[in-house]
Sequence to fold (256 residues):
Amino acid sequence: MRVTGKICVITGGASGIGKALAERFHAEGAKGIVVADLQEDALKQVADSVNGLGVVTNVAKEDDIQALVAAAEEKYGHIDVFVSNAGIARMGGVETSDADWQLNWDIHVMAHVYAARAVAEKMAVRGEGYLINTASAAGLLTHVNSATYAVTKNAAVAFAEWLAINYGDRGVHVSVLAPQAVRTAMTTGRDVSVASVDGMIEPEELADCVIETMDREEFLMIPHRQVLEYMRRKATDVDRWIGGMQRFRKKNPEST
Fold:
């Protein structure tokens, strides 16, 4: 699918990956762009820059997602592309509070569920649509220093797979965006990490990958191509892969 002439909704759209996607979709000729975020001032700036609509949205609340979809439909009629992109990163292991576990679950998993509930069936009825769920390379592999991030991003990938299986033959394309390190506010001060050993890319480079993968209508959007080889190694010999991750953790105890 090409975004030219399409109506696109992007959560987490006030900065970073979401902002870069809004700008790229605009440059590609999208008919309408709706950006959603909690950062009201930054959200307005992005919406104005792409001649679109900004909707203050807490993606962890289903009512907010429903209101976002309603606002987009009221302005543009329907939604062609929904990028469920909002995310957070909190370091910690088993000691992480229940509240942080729940917050990660709500933002990284349930937000995708809420979006799909709101738009997937409508897309299927029209026989056309595109769902893009932002996960992470951590969703295909792991995150050494964040149990909450690793677990919920893996769940995000699993849900995207389920969507692709259940809606793909009804005209709804599904992709999961799984980058390693991208230079955003989330990665500030975290240059030494498993995710960044293959290089920190700019959000604009990631946007290139999204456009190219949408054109091919492939499930995996992977801007760091090394991740494919890591996936193969993990699938071929998971014990060896775990051993390698253990060695990395010991050599880089402060990695994030």
